[in-house]
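=== RUN LOG ===
request id: a7f3
mode: sequence -> structure
chains: 1
length: 244
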Amino acid sequence: MGIDLARESKVRRVILSGEPAGSIPAVKRQLEEAWNAKVGDSAGMTEIGSIMMFECRHQPGGAHIIEDHFIEECLEHDGDRQVPYGHEAERVVTSFGRGFIPLVRYRTKDLVVKVPYTTCPCGRTFDIYDGGIRGRWDDMKLVRGTNVYPRAVEAIVREFDAIDEFQIVLERVGLVDEITVHVELKPGFESDWDALRERLSGALRDAHEGLRFTVGRAPAGSLPRFELKAKRFADKRPKAEFKH
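=== RESULT ===
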């Protein structure tokens, strides 16, 4: 519509919600530049009827858990053992906030890393989910022996300002799983393609134990856009069929 939000908008605060959203530093930076506004992260769940975490103004790299409304546990995924501070865990929540529909030790499948409240200088005594909701355990894909999380891939892709949109595609070629990141470039960056492709594939490889990523260029406007929760990971590998 030709409106320069950074110059003409009166918006000064943008509150994001939904994983991973504002938990990814590069996404937060791009949105702050686009709106010329301060961006904060939060997250909620329909099942518990409310927001369950928020980012304070100190923005310590994570969001405070609203612990006077919820009992939050960090357990091993598909297990019952407690996971200590600083380690990946599944978020398990008990909420009494909805009255007639209480939740007791609800397995959310949210991937979180809890750190002590002392990590933040704001003075609150609510512990923090470092990096917010980092994704979901059931989003994790095993590719040639390496765990791949869409959020981790997005965190790397969004560091490249030349990229407008992207999609991750997982396919089986012969007997081997192949993972490709298709990217659209912003106008004016077409001449930088070869260098960008090398840098992006190298960054993805280094962050995933040497796993080879193919980086492909998609025509402008060809990748899907989303108005609500984005789904940028397509697993096209054949599914096993079991017959009785």
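=== NOTES ===
The mean pLDDT is 89.
The helical segments are 5-8, 25-35, 150-157, 193-207.
=== END ===
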